[in-house]
Amino acid sequence: MSNIKKCAGKESLQRMNYLLQLANQLITQNKSSYIASLQYTNLMINISKKAVQRLDIDIKRNTCKGCRSILIPGITSKIRIKKKKMNVHCLNCSTLKIFEVKNPDYLPWSQKNESLVEIINYTPHR
User: What range does the record give for the signal peptide (predicted)?
Assistant: First the structure.
């Protein structure tokens, strides 16, 4: 037996990563492929729900809760900073997301060093 640790849900993580990259690539190349990009992000969110795996906070912040499109500043979203709050306005469905920007040194808990328990290398050793 080998001492290689197995990762639960590795295939679904890889598929969600691929769908996110594909949706991001489609929306940045041309605006006409918006519907295909929307379907890929919708599929990515549904896979994460079915596999009971949480999406990263950066992915959650960059997807619209109304229409589930990727929020790219200048292409699919408009960003305004007013009164120490960042307003992200989706240009497709007019949904507004508000983030506070009072503390410039703020990091979400998942991005802090104490949140890491273990780093698993998925590539096989040769």
Answer: none
Backbone angles phi, psi at 51, to 5 degrees: -85, 0
| Helix 34-50 vs helix 10-29: crossing angle, to nearest 10 | 160
Q: Taking the model in full, what pTM does it have?
A: 0.77
Nearest residue to 15 via CA among 45, 57, 56:
45
In a domain, 83, yes or no: yes
Token code pair at residue 51: 């596999």
- Structural domain span for residue 28: 10-112
Torsion sign over Cα 6, 9, 15, 19: negative
Residue 67 lies in a domain: yes
pLDDT over threshold 70, residue 62 = yes
Domains: count for the chain: 1
